[in-house]
Amino acid sequence: TLAATAIGQASYSATIKAWREKREAELRSDGGWLTVAGLFWLKEGANRFGTDPSNEIVLPKGSTLSRAGAFEFHGGKTTLRAEPGANVLSEGRAITALEIRTDADEKPTVLTVGAVTLQVIKRGERYGVRMRDKNSRRRREFTGLRWFPAREPFRIKASFVAYDKPRDIAITNVLGDVQNMPSPGYALFALGGRKYRLDPVLEDDRLFFIFSDLTSGKSTYPAGRFLYSDMPENGFVTLDFNQAVNPPCAFTSFATCPLPPRQNRLKVAISAGEKRP
Q1: What is the DSSP string of 61-98?
Q2: Cα(229)–Cα(238) distance, integer angstroms
Q3: Tell me, what's the pLDDT at 221?
Q4: CA 175 → CA 85, 138, 245, 262, distances in Å?
């Protein structure tokens, strides 16, 4: 009945509203992408850090010494050497020397310097120091996310065609690095009377869809958007485009986002989910 449909839509709208509020809270948090304020690629040898602009790794004014120390990088291994008084902390303890674990390790090293955190990341053959700043300009000036109205027709029950065993998809990131990622199959769905296909990759026991569509570069972020779903059940998967989100690159120029593979560049306008900032 119409009444039951209206109640269902109201309940669904409330669920999406709560989900979107949580999404924005995570983005605004101390660990959110709005705090990512620097990315410094490491060269062999000493990579000096501190507040002086002549350092290879420049930290915000007032956060530490002008010459606080160096990240010593040799053959893929990084050792931090900090000056006494630089106030560099690891797990709450002041340190002057430490071998650094990258974000590719199960328990990466996170260094704290006042309101700043530093972490070594590995991207392809490159290593860099990612800086987060709780007082970043982007975080201070952020005015909130923008969304299309939540509409049930964009919550789609799609058929899922599973492979006998996962196949690799080549995913290119904004740096031009290519990584082969496992895909368990593909989703088939209909929209506006036409059929479309999306190929996911696996991420933390979920399906991760990197896609673009005819709204990309207009009302949505030019490089595309991300969509997650639960694993398929009984040959079906739910694609809720009302939960499509911008990649981290929409909020910081210091992220290394993956780009949609060619087959996920849809020739249809998905007027749902997060709009461009």
Answers
A1: TTSS-SS-EEEEEETTEEEEEE-TTS--EETTEE-SEE
A2: 7
A3: 98
A4: 36, 22, 21, 17
pLDDT of amino acid 4? 47
Cβ pair 41, 126 in contact under 8 A: yes
Per-residue confidence (pLDDT) for residue 124, from 0 to 100:
87
Spans of the chain below 50 pLDDT? 2-4
190, 196, 197, 198 alpha-carbon torsion, rounded to 10°:
-80
Q: Quick one: pLDDT at residue 38?
A: 97
The DSSP bridge pattern shows strands 201-203 and 206-211 to be antiparallel
Using CA atoms, how far apart are residues 62 and 113, in angstroms rounded to an integer? 10
Residues 6+ apart with CB under 8 A from 17: 150
CB 120 within 8 A of CB 78: yes
Q: What is the pLDDT of residue 3?
A: 46
pLDDT at 206: 97
